[in-house]
What does this fold into?
Amino acid sequence: MQHVTLAEANIDWHSDEQYNLETEDIQNLANKQEQLYLKAGQALDYTVEDGYFNEDCVTVYVLKNEEKQELPIVGIQSFKLPDEIGEYVIVFNLKTDQGDDAQYVGKIIIQ
It folds into this structure.
């Protein structure tokens, strides 16, 4: 199983402001990350290592040519990639039980 860590883009921890982070251009940040090669339509599992979160408050989307496509959450802690091949920026948004928000980004190539 391949483990991937996405880059922290925007973090808003009400409980501990030292971790707050703001990224104005998430696409630029994502383009600086190592490209991940994945299969079209593949379901991916995700894990969150620290903290508590509400699974209903997880959203994932991709950007291709500045067009946003929401990715469906399937099952518990899984989402489905687009069926169309190409280069994408992936954005993973997480809201914790404490009301904190975190956003992570990466660069994916769908084959």
